[in-house]
Amino acid sequence: MSREISRIITAQHATEGAGFPIRRPFPTQELDNLDPFLMLDEVGPVDWPPGEAVGAPDHPHRGFETISYVLAGEKLHEDSTGDHQILGPGDVQWMTAGSGIVHSEMPSPAMRAAGGRSHSFQIWVNLPSEHKMAAQRYQFVARDEIPLGESDDGLVKVRVIAGEAYDAQATINTYTPVTLQDWTMQPGGQARPTPPREQQMAIYLFQGSLAVGPEGQRVDDGQLVIFANDGEDSIDLSLDGNADNPARFLLFGGLPIGEPIARYGPFVMNTREELVQAFDDYQSGRMGVISR
């Protein structure tokens, strides 16, 4: 037996940062979080004219981790610890905000000047209470360093950001056990990934369509599928051999933290009092500033 489908949610369209378009399956009124994941934003795709690309200027975070995964275009990351990096297509940045950090994610200077297509994911992962005030940490994995898995018939390829698939093991270190993978399935492909049984799992489809679950339910572009925690480990995925296009999706999930969540804007803590302290620490400058 494989995991049953618990819910299917269609992502909502919105605008974030300085005005870039997103699709967001959560948090919304329909789904607040998918413990330990707090947010999943698909940024774009959008084609920027020269001089018009925008991003997310300086802003603080505390109490969780942010993941930037770039599919197209370039981002310039800068933060109050002094880290700075240009992320290109296929690159991953996993940043632990911990006790507090100020960062910005803007189009690279070249992207601003020339314009072009921008497409990425911005993902938030919660931290357990014991690690919410951890030291800041910046993990960058370049495109060519991300482990790749592949099915025997070559119809399924996986970029393993966290967890493992087809004997490919991720290099990212995480505070709580999580899975995060970018799957591409060609027409006629089939797969039965087996993430850890104790992890709450989901897929977010951002290209094509896919048959999911033991009954092969069709899922379309922009839909999130949440699987039941029913004691099974495998997940059934397939794509009809007559499909016009490949399917591409994120397979993700993690071990639920199961703690109270107090969140407001850029801070995610366990209590309202901790949120008030976070705002006070930011406004008093204790989270630092970005030096340029």
Summarize the structure.
The protein has 292 residues and is mainly beta. The protein contains two helices and 26 strands.
Envelope shape: globular
Quote the beta fraction.
over 45%
Number of strands: 26
Q: Classify the fold: give the CATH topology.
A: Jelly Rolls
Main sheet characteristics = 7 strands, antiparallel
Radius of gyration: 19 Å
Q: Order of SSEs, N→C?
A: EEEEEEEEEEHEEEEEEEEEEEEEEEEH
Strand order of the largest sheet: 1-22-19-24-17-14-13
CATH class: Mainly Beta
Which CATH-level-2 architecture? Sandwich
Distance between the termini: 55 Å
In total, how many domains does the architecture comprise? Answer: 1
CATH homologous superfamily (4th level) name: Jelly Rolls
Structural class: mainly beta
Number of helices: 2
What does the average pLDDT come to? 96
Q: Low-confidence parts lasting 5 or more residues at pLDDT below 50?
A: none
Helix content: under 10%
Q: In words, what does this structure look like?
A:
With 292 residues, the protein is mainly beta. The protein is built from two helices and 26 strands. It has helices spanning 109-114, 272-283, and strands spanning 5-10, 12-16, 20-26, 37-48, 56-61, 64-72, 75-79, 84-87, 92-96, 101-107, 116-126, 137-141, 148-150, 156-162, 164-165, 168-169, 178-185, 190-191, 200-207, 209-212, 217-220, 223-227, 237-238, 247-254, 262-264, 267-269. It has a seven-stranded antiparallel sheet with strand order 1-22-19-24-17-14-13, with no helix packed on it. A seven-stranded antiparallel sheet has the order 2-3-4-11-6-9-12, with no helix packed on it. A four-stranded antiparallel sheet has the order 5-10-7-8. 41% of the residues are buried. The mean pLDDT is 96.
